[in-house]
Amino acid sequence: YMVRHIFIATIKDGVSEEIVNQKMEEMRAMKDSVPEIESIMVGRSLGWVGAANTVTMVIDLKDRNAFDTLMASPAHIEVGNKAAEAFETDNFVISQIEY
Question: Do residues 14 and 20 lie in contact, with contact meaning Cβ atoms separated by under 8 Å?
Fold first, then answer.
């Protein structure tokens, strides 16, 4: 089985498209320095159903050890520490599933 880590963040009001795109690129770049990441997808909600003003990140990992390594990695910590520049930090939706 694999582990899928799902993260959804609400974009703060007034944050420019340029900043949102920069944050998404910083998220995607974690794959360059965290070899435990099998795949990563990051995108802005299309808003067809549900929350419209969000960014979703989906990361696939081999197992719990890979997840723990990702969470403790300097790349993930840096992305997390900068999240408040663009995102509301009090209502993240975070989930992990096995598949």
Answer: no
